[in-house]
Design a protein that fits this description.
Blueprint (H helix, E strand, L loop, with lengths): L2 E6 L6 H11 L4 E7 L10 H11 L6 E6 L3 H7 L4 E6 L2 H17 L4 E6 L9 H9 L10 H14 L1
Parallel strand pairs: 1-2, 1-4, 2-3, 4-5
The structure holds adenosine-5'-diphosphate (ADP).
């Protein structure tokens, strides 16, 4: 059985992430979307909220499971009985960061393999931070994020008004 782990902060999940999940779920028997705490980023949604939004927006992908973890990625991946990590890749800006991360994890644990899925050109401009910025300034996020995320963000924006 081919299992792959797709780790990320998903704060929040966007249609760009979902596109990667759909495509990756066809390549593996099981895809585990794993939310982790990225110490470099201050989150808008708690870990539990991110997991909940991911579960809601991926419920139609039968071989996808949402989970969360903290600690070392390679240890988590090993516990899932696999060595395959899937990451999405947007423009050149992602490349440098993802390249470093993939090499670092390979250095720590040579059995790990990172597989990159090229973004769908329709979503190449989409990022969680872009969504948060857009929403903060009252921009419309319809069509860029799953409906449950749109509802949740709009609720928060109302409260903050
Ligand atoms: P991080 O894990 O670095 O905090 P994110 O949670 O934002 O990053 O994203 C998780 C993964 O999804 C990363 O590999 C990122 O490059 C990828 N990704 C984010 N947005 C898109 C998109 N629009 N198209 C394809 N891949 C994306």
């Amino acid at each position: 059985m081919r299992i792959a782990v797709c780790p990320g902060s998903f704060d929040p999940v966007t249609n760009g992430h979902l596109d990667v999940f759909y495509r990756a779920s066809k390549m593996f028997d099981e895809l585990i979307v794993a939310v982790f705490h990225n110490p470099g980023k201050k989150p808008m949604f708690t870990m539990e909220e991110r997991v909940e939004l991911l579960r809601e927006s991926t419920k139609n992908i039968s071989n996808l499971r949402v989970d969360s973890f903290s600690g070392l990625l390679n240890e988590y991946v090993r516990k899932q009985n696999t060595f395959i990590i899937v990451r999405g890749l947007r423009a050149l800006t992602d490349f440098e960061y993802e390249f470093q991360r993939a090499l670092l994890i390979k250095k720590v644990d040579p059995a790990m393999e990172t597989v990159f899925m090229m973004t769908n050109s329709e979503y190449s401009f989409l990022s969680s931070s872009g969504i948060k910025e857009l929403a903060t300034f009252g921009g419309c996020i319809k069509g860029l994020v799953p409906e449950c995320v749109e509802v949740e963000i709009n609720k928060r924006m109302q409260v903050n008004k």
